[in-house]
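Deliverable D5.2: sample structural annotation.
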Amino acid sequence: MKKIFLDSDVLLDLLLDREPFMDDIAEIIEESISSEVKLCVSPISITNINYIIGKLENQRKADTQTKKILRIVNVENVGQTIIDKAANSRFKDFEDGVQNYCAEESGHEIIITRNTKDYKESELSILTPREYLAKIQNE
């Protein structure tokens, strides 16, 4: 089964109905449901999503949206090794380092994010949702 790692930003696009980005991630989720693609995130994404939606909207909506996303994605593990790698990496943002090494340690080859520049230190394939959709249409 193919596994795709999603960054927090694309999930927030979906859950907060952020245009024009929402449609691409919604299409990826629909595609994953009808195919052999497993969507995964780090635990940091779940806590970030809950916190951000709680601040922008309210905690009730944050909790509802968190439960909604947990029905769609699998949460990968983050432990000492991943945290150490992120802390000692060349990533400018610690969180991006954690996301990257979580994806890498979990066997992912692709991270989907709108912030591709944040992952320039990654050895993984970093794609926007639109780039990913174009890639799978050409396969």
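Annotation notes: The mean pLDDT is 95. The first strand starts at residue 2 and ends at 6.
The annotation will be released with the project's public dataset once the embargo ends.
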